[in-house]
Each structure stands twice: as C-alpha cells, then as structure tokens.
Amino acid sequence: YGGWGLYTDEGSSHILFENNLVYRTKTGGFHQHYGRENIVRNNILAFAKEQQLQVSRVEDHLSFTFENNILLWDEGELARGPWDRVRVRMRRNLYWPMHGGPVRFGDQSFEAWQAAGHDEGSLVADPMFLNARQGDFRLRPDSPALGLGFKPFDPDEAGVRGPDAWRRLARDYPWPELQLPPPPPPLPIRDDFEGTPAGQPSDAAEVHVENRGDTIAVTDTTAASGRHSLEIRDAPGLERAFNPHLVYRPNHREGQTRMEFDLRLETNAWLVVEWRDYQGGGYRTGPMVVFRQGRLELPGQPPRPLPMDRWLHCRIVGGLGDRAPAGWSFQLTGEDVAIDFQGLPPARKAFRELDWVGFISNARQTTRVYLDNLQIVPSEE
After folding, report:
1. Quick one: 76 and 102 in the same domain?
2. Shared domain check, 251 and 344
3. Residue 240 near residue 361 (C-beta atoms within 8 A)
4. Residue 99's domain spans which residues?
5. Would you give the end-to-end CA distance of the chain in angstroms?
6. What CATH number should be reported for the domain holding residue 368?
7. Are residues 117 and 13 in the same domain?
8. HEC-encoded secondary structure of the chain
9. Does one domain contain both 150 and 56?
10. Is the domain of 120 the same as that of 208?
C-alpha cells in the first residue's frame, strides 16, 4: 500500500514542502489525502512508477498550492484523482514525460487544464538535467525550469549525517531493484446465497448498513430458485441516502464482463445498480440501471413501467478497456416482460475498468429488494 514521497495525510494542514528531491517511488512523488492550505514548492519529483501526483478528497477550501516544481517521468501517468473538482492553486511548474505520453489531469489535456484556469505559466518541456536516469539532477544553465523561477538546491545536503564512513555506508547500500507484484487476476463472482444461513450477510460482498432499521442479509422467505435470496431492506431516517448498499469488487480490466441476477422489487423500492472504475482516484460510472418506484430508467431512454412483487431476470454485458466506449447492453425478462437495449452509453466516457459493482437502495422509506443467482464474470460473447 502506498509508497509516496511527500504525503499530506488525514487533515495535514499549513505544511511547507520545499527543496526536496523525490525519485523512483512506487505510487507518486506527492499525494494529498486531505488537508488545508499546504504548500508544495521548488521540488523535483521524478520517475514514480504508477503516477506522479495524486489527490483524494474533494473539500470546500484550498487544499494546497503547487508551484515551481519539476516533474519528470518515463512510465505511468501524471495525475490520479478528482482533479476536476479539488480546489488547488498550481502555477509555474515544469512537466516532462520522457516516454512521450500525454500530460493529462484526469480527463483533461494539459491545454484544457490550463484553459480552465490551472497551472498559469507552467510548461511541458525537457528540464535538461545533466543525467537524471543516473541520478544526477543538476540542471544545465539553459534549463527552462530556471526561467519559471525554480531555484536549484543541493540534494547531497539531505540524508544521513555524521562521519564520512557512516554516510558512505548509507550511500553505497546495495538497494534491491523494486519488484512490484502483478495486479490481481479478474475475479469471477457467483452467488446463489444457498450456502449462507438466513439472517447473515453474503460472504462474497461488502455490506454497508446503518443498523437503524436497514439490513442486508440472506432470507428464506422468498427465492427465485432454491430456498435463499438476499434481502436489501431500506428504512426512513438514515443518515446517508445511499444506504443500505451492497458492493462487489470484481477487478475486471479488459475484454468484456457479463452480469446477471434475479431481482424482486417491493412497492416503492428504489434500487440503483452501478459499475464503477476507481482507477485514477474518484470514480467513473459505466453501466447504470435505476429501478425507481415502479419504473425502469436507462441512460438516454424514456422511463418504462415495471411490475412489482415478482421475480425478474436482469442481464448486463459491457466492454472494458479499449472496448468500453462501444457501450453496453441490458436485458430484462420475466412474466410479460421482455426489454432489450443494445449500445447504451457509459455514464462517463472515461469509464474503462470494472473495480466496483454496487446495489444501492435510495428509497428513504421502509421497502425491500431481493436479489438471487448473481453472476459477475468475464465473458467472450
């Protein structure tokens, strides 16, 4: 987990990060979880493996100022997180992707990012280090960073202090090459809830409830097949409108995924089914289906009436990675019900990976939804 060079975590505020050389980290040179009015100034952030910069929480105050920094990378991306919504002040920075990749903040190109009022005076240009790949981060006299106001510093002043022998020991330590584990494989999820005792939550999912009359638990009072199904019971007066909600994390990255489940809705049930991509911080919704108080709502389609208190079968098939922009399909079948849509657009164009599947009850009153025979599996259809 983690591996940032400069990290303002858990409300860190009014901290100055200045004249630091950060290089060859795993997950970034700088990350702010959340905090207020920090200053990141005159630093060199180089060669992080996954991303160079990261923000996490969107707050209603100035999170940090980022100015006169040099960023250099040859793999990964520049920025991860909800940069389109976080409040930051950025100016006079120098960005250089040595691998020729794009300079982007979320979905925005660098040109669009600057046009939106960010990074005034910043450049995309070679900083002209003497030999950055070999760890020599001294700047040549004609470096464009100097024209932006960057003030060179001596990184040799950092690190272990004391006798020369002690400093040599630290300098010459044979650090092993960083070997990152491969990403976890895609997880096929299948759950008919028959193996879980009534009254218990599903072992395969995350359950988010407030225990104020709301529950998510296996029941033996109704089932599409077998003896068990999963009951999602909403209640009035909950603190969060999106509770209770149920989450699966399939970690599907490419190809195509098929999700099927049986569904029974009580009167006034309001269920949202979402696929989410959490790569890059924040999230981007792909396929989304809303079952709202007797109506089916799909993107770009007029609402359709739904039968209540009977079992229906839902099927969603969506592309991931390069296939995500092609859209997704939705089928709903049951007694006197046959709905079929192809080529539905993802809710966000940037959706690419299936990290999260949620069943969210928004009813805000006492009502129930039942799920059965759930599958979320890679598909080659």
Report:
1. yes
2. yes
3. no
4. 4-171
5. 35
6. 2.60.120.200
7. yes
8. CCCEEEEECCCEECCEEECCEEECCCCEEEEECCEECEEEECCEEECCCCEEEEECCCCCCCCEEEECCEEEECCCEEEECCCCCCCEEEECCEEEECCCCCCEECCEEHHHHHHCCCCECCEECCCCEEEHHHCEEEECCCCHHHHCCCCCCCHHHCCCCCCHHHHHHHHCCCCCCCCCCCCCCCCCEEECCCCCCCCCCCCCCEEECCCCCCEEEEECCCCCCCCCEEEEEECCCCCCCCCCEEEECCCECCEEEEEEEEEEECCCCEEEEEEEECCCCCCEEEEEEEEECCEEECCCCCCEECCCCCEEEEEEEEEEHHHHHHCEEEEEEECCEEEEEEEECCCCCCCCCECEEEEEECCCCCEEEEEEEEEEEECCC
9. yes
10. no
Give the per-residue pLDDT at 1.
Answer: 66
pLDDT mean for each 10 residues of the chain (381 residues): 90 97 94 97 96 94 98 94 92 97 88 97 98 95 98 87 91 86 86 96 93 97 98 96 96 95 97 90 88 95 95 98 94 95 93 96 97 94 60
* 368 falls within a domain: yes
**Structural domain count of the chain:** 2
Asked whether residue 181 is assigned to any structural domain, the reply reads no
Residues forming beta bridges with residue 320, ordered by sequence position = 255
